[in-house]
Amino acid sequence: MIQGRYYIDSHGYPRAELLNPNEALGTFLEQDIQGSKSTCEELLQNCEEVLTGIRNNWSWEGNAHTLSVSKAHVIIQNMYAADEAVCMLAISDLKTAILNWMQLLQGPS
After folding, report:
1. Are the CB atoms for 32 and 40 separated by under 8 Å?
2. Quick one: which of 65, 60, 67, 91 has its CA closest to 79?
3. Could you tell me if 15 and 31 are in contact, meaning their C-beta atoms sit under 8 angstroms apart?
4. Cα distance between residue 19 and residue 35, in whole Å
């Protein structure tokens, strides 16, 4: 389980403060997905295709991070910040983080 919090800051921007070793996941959500629900849906769909065997693996390059997905794990790496640690996690954890992000973007129900 990934620990941290998702919130809208005082300027109206979605934020993800995730604890080590998942800080890169938080910055990935903020900098690459940003406010795009369609990007969330695209990422979830491709993760599902890897899980079900339609694809062996899948990669995606965003604004600041690369995402590499295989059945074994997901790797998130910042392309510009050498000091940011690489994040390795399970596909299920990535899917949960994206679903939490989508919920944040949709606002209160």
Report:
1. no
2. 65
3. no
4. 21
- From first to last of its 109 residues, the chain has per-residue pLDDT tens of 788 999 999 999 999 999 988 999 999 999 999 999 999 999 999 999 999 999 999 999 999 999 999 999 999 999 998 777 789 999 999 999 999 999 999 987 5
Beta bridge partners of 69: 58, 74
In the β-sheet with 65-70, what is the strand arrangement from edge to edge?
57-61, 65-70, 74-78, 87-89
Q: What is the DSSP letter of 12?
A: S
What does the block give as tokens for 33?
């997905």
- Residue 82's contacts (CB-CB under 8 Å, 6 or more residues apart) are none
Q: Are strands 87-89 and 74-78 parallel, antiparallel or unpaired?
A: antiparallel
**Token reading at 26:** 């938080």
95 CB-contact burial (10 Å; exposed 0-12 / middle 13-18 / buried 19+): middle
